[in-house]
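Could you help me review a protein record that somebody else here produced? What it holds is a sequence and that sequence's fold in token form. I need someone to confirm that the token line plausibly describes how this chain folds. Take the sequence as given and treat only the tokens as open to question. This is what I was given:
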Amino acid sequence: KEAIWRNVHHIEKTPINPSHLMGFGRYNWTCCEKMLNLQVENDFDLFYIHDFQQLPIGAMLGPNVHKIFRWHIPFDSNLKTSWRRFIVKYM
């Protein structure tokens, strides 16, 4: 998540690190599992996903779970192509 933050704020231009990406994915999958369990118990109307730290969760929850994702950083078209693709894939 730190690399995403640094890149979208133009602090540092770094490539996506595969080992960091795996950890980011594990964190998001753990959160997703907890959210799905809570959904079964509580029947929420929707989930509010607040920030980039949980960017992949929307896709992980699937199309049948209602959710809102808030991206509060301006999306810069000058962002490195690999980062743009990564972000757009999960939005």
